[in-house]
Design brief:
alpha/beta; 46% helix; 14% strand
Length: 263
């Protein structure tokens, strides 16, 4: 008999590593995986943030641990992967969410800022994914990789937004996702991306202030920004057996903005 929908979405017995998981979208994703039954490893740069967020998840009954790591540094990434594998034994679900942004007109965008964005948003994803896959997922012939892209990676920006490096990095994440899915399908590893639209967070504070919340909401067919629940369903779909035949895909969670712009 086929499994029930509840059984397909159940993540009990699974382990998950979520980078950038101490706040914002990363914490929402970690919470979703934990609520579905997974044991969760949170990672971000600041221990204080991790301690606070882990306490929130523990209070909700989630089995959670944390490791501080800077995903712009290769040595930190390898240490994060190795320590996670040491504590958990293996990683079933990897969520690449750590990211940075930089706003500047393209003609004046600092090269060092370009490099910083690419280093975290693309290079960091690759190094961690490679390490986890090589030492856990490929040998076990199983894995779920979820990459956080953005609708910024599907096209250009509204007038007044200048984030050329961020847009380019998220476009790279989309094709990184598709290329890796094709290569690692033979190992029964699925690789998919989530492309959020505008969500209130520390990273988007400047954009929301400059562009105006009501203005941004007006460009969405649903007339609203994303909230603390809107990524949870897609994350668990990608991570669970409910999505076991989905790979190499990206889906915008943006209130319909990309349908308007054609992204």
């Amino acid at each position: 008999m086929t499994r029930t929908i509840q059984q397909l979405f159940d993540l009990k017995g699974k382990t998950a590593l979520v980078t950038g998981g101490s706040r914002g979208l990363g914490l929402q994703l970690a919470q979703a995986l934990g609520e579905a039954g997974a044991r969760v490893m949170l990672s971000s740069r600041k221990s204080d943030d991790l301690i606070e967020s882990a306490a929130v998840l523990k209070a909700a009954g989630i089995d959670v641990d944390w490791i501080a790591a800077d995903c712009s540094k290769e040595s930190d990434i390898h240490a994060l992967a190795d320590e996670t594998l040491k504590r958990f034994g293996h990683v079933d679900i990897l969520v690449n969410n750590a990211g940075v942004a930089w706003g500047a007109p393209a003609e004046d965008h600092p090269v060092e800022a370009w490099d910083k964005v690419m280093n975290v948003n693309v290079r960091g994803y690759f190094i961690l994914t490679q390490h986890i896959a090589k030492h856990s997922m490929i040998p076990r012939k199983s894995g779920r990789i979820i990459n956080l892209a953005s609708i910024a990676g599907l096209g250009g920006n509204p007038r007044g937004m200048n984030t050329i490096a961020y847009n380019t990095s998220k476009g790279a994440v989309v094709n990184f996702t598709r290329a890796l899915a094709c290569e690692w399908g033979v190992h029964q590893i699925t690789v998919n991306a989530i492309c959020p639209g505008f969500f209130p967070s520390r990273m988007t504070v400047g954009t929301l202030k400059n562009m105006g919340v009501e203005n941004l909401e007006s460009h969405a067919p649903l007339g609203r920004l994303g909230d603390d629940e809107d990524l949870k369903g897609l994350c668990v779909l990608y991570a669970s057996d409910a999505g076991k035949h989905i790979t190499g895909q990206y889906l915008a969670v943006d209130g319909g903005v990309s349908a308007v712009t054609g992204g």
